[in-house]
Amino acid sequence: MMACISCYGITSVYAEESSTSVADTKSLPTIVVVGSASKSGSELLKQPLSSSIIDEQQLKDSGADKLDNALFYEAGILAQPYGKDNKFQWFKIRGFDASQTLDGTALAPNGFFVWEPEIYCLERLEIVKGANSFNYGASQTGGNVNLVSKRPKLEPQGEITYSVGSLDKREIGADYSGLISDEVRYRMVGLFRQADGQQKGSEMDHYYVARSFAWDITDRTHFTLLTSFLKKDGVPTSGFLPLYGTVLDTPYGKIDPKTNLGEPDRDYSKLEQTSIGYEFSHEFENGLIASQNFRWGRFDLNQLSTFAWGSDNNRA
């Protein structure tokens, strides 16, 4: 059996004259298109997610000395749900636990080993609420709070502050930024705070030092070095007491909200944390920006705490 396949190709060629007149050509105005991806570039109001920023001035106006204090008036955030605590930060975003990052790098909590931020040494808080925080890496369901460290300014400036407050709080801080040369700047921040806790016999001393250096290698290339050291030493608060039986009456009476059910003569908390990192960025002629950052941290906690858990289930 033989099969024969024939292929035929037909090509048609047409010639057509076209004429274009200058009057038919229109010039459109030049536009600039700006695009961004990942974690940078877009303005806050144009972001398709729920986010907010608490800047340095707002932090000062609030008088906050802890992260959960600074988040008190932020929509969608429940801060200090169990009351005041001089050991840790307690807050939830949209009813769920939230993650923290420092200058864009992860802070991985491990039980009681949780990084302790110092509000006085931060430029701002960047808050992303809900599942959109997963765009920035692994995070808790509630969202993420990015802590932005203070860094060198373009012009020399400085301040010394002293404040007192409730619970026998005393605080002194110093913040100075200066120039080493036209290309190199520095900033030094220091703080000492002493305050009693919510419960009788509890107290905590804070010591914080941060140094940073910024180097403008070229007009398009920048390098920033960030370092910090924190030490806390004192008697921790002991557990949390319920609303009923302390502030509100019950058929069984009530106790002083400052009651300490631990052993303040024996309990202690000693914390030291160190951090060093850098940020590097370069802008190419076509507007593309390449950036890279790194941070190393060490966290040492030695704590002995005795506490009782209070229940208000039988309040009737």
List the helices and strands and how they pair.
Layout: E1 51-55, H1 56-62, H2 67-70, E2 77-79, E3 91-93, E4 96-97, E5 99-102, E6 105-106, E7 122-129, E8 143-149, E9 157-165, E10 169-179, E11 184-196, E12 203-216, E13 221-235, E14 268-283, E15 289-304
Outline:
The protein has 316 residues and is mainly beta. It has helices at 56-62, 67-70; strands spanning 51-55, 77-79, 91-93, 96-97, 99-102, 105-106, 122-129, 143-149, 157-165, 169-179, 184-196, 203-216, 221-235, 268-283, 289-304.
Q: Strand sequence of the main sheet, in spatial order?
A: 9-10-11-12-13-14-15
Low-confidence stretches: 1-22
Individual helix count:
2
What summary fits the major beta sheet? 7 strands, antiparallel
Proportion in helices: under 10%
Report strand %. 35-45%
What report would you give on this structure?
This is Ferrichrome outer membrane transporter/phage receptor. InterPro entries: Beta-barrel_TonB_sf, Plug_dom, Plug_dom_sf, TonB-dep_rcpt-like. Pfam families: Plug (PF07715). The structure is a single chain. By secondary structure, the chain is mainly beta. The chain has one domain (33-304): Ferric Hydroxamate Uptake Protein, Chain A, domain 1 (Beta Complex). Helix content is 3%, strand content 41%. The protein contains 2 helices and 15 strands. The strands form 3 sheets. A 7-stranded antiparallel β-sheet has the order 9-10-11-12-13-14-15, with no helix packed on it. A 5-stranded mixed β-sheet has the order 1-7-8-5-6. Strands 2-3-4 form a 3-stranded antiparallel β-sheet, with no helix packed on it. The longest helix has 7 residues, at 56-62.
